[in-house]
Amino acid sequence: EITPEGTVGSIGGVQQKIVGAEEDGAELFLVPADNCDEAVRGHWDPDTMRLARVATLEEAVDVVETWVDDPDAALPACKVGSETSVRTGK
Predict the structure, then answer these.
(1) Which residues, in sequence order, are bridge partners of residue 2?
(2) Residue 55's closest CA among 13, 10, 18?
(3) How far is CA 12 from the centre of its chain?
(4) pTM of this prediction?
(5) Which residue, 1, 32, 35, 66, has fewest beta-carbon neighbours within 10 Å?
(6) pLDDT tens for residues 69-87?
(7) What distance in Å separates the CA atoms of residue 34 and residue 53, rounded to the nearest whole number?
(8) Is the Cβ–Cβ distance between 16 and 65 less than 8 Å?
C-alpha cells in the first residue's frame, strides 16, 4: 500500500511473497520498512535475491534505479530490530 503522500505501508504475508518472488526468479524485493523484522526472519537466499528496505515511493524508485545501474550497489537493507543496515553486493 502506498499513501497519496508516497508513504509505503506494510504488507501481509511478506515472507510468503519473498519466497514466491524468489521462486519466480526475482533478484530484488522491495520490503516496506514496517515489514523488515518479519522479512529477515524468513527463508530466502541472499546470494540469489536482495531485500531492499523502502519507506517511501521516492526511496523505492531510487533503489530500483540504483540496482538497475549496478546490481552490486549498496542498498538500504533490513535486519532484525528494524534497524537499517547497508548491504554491499550480492
Answers:
(1) 8
(2) 10
(3) 14
(4) 0.84
(5) 1
(6) 999 999 999 876 544 434 4
(7) 9
(8) no
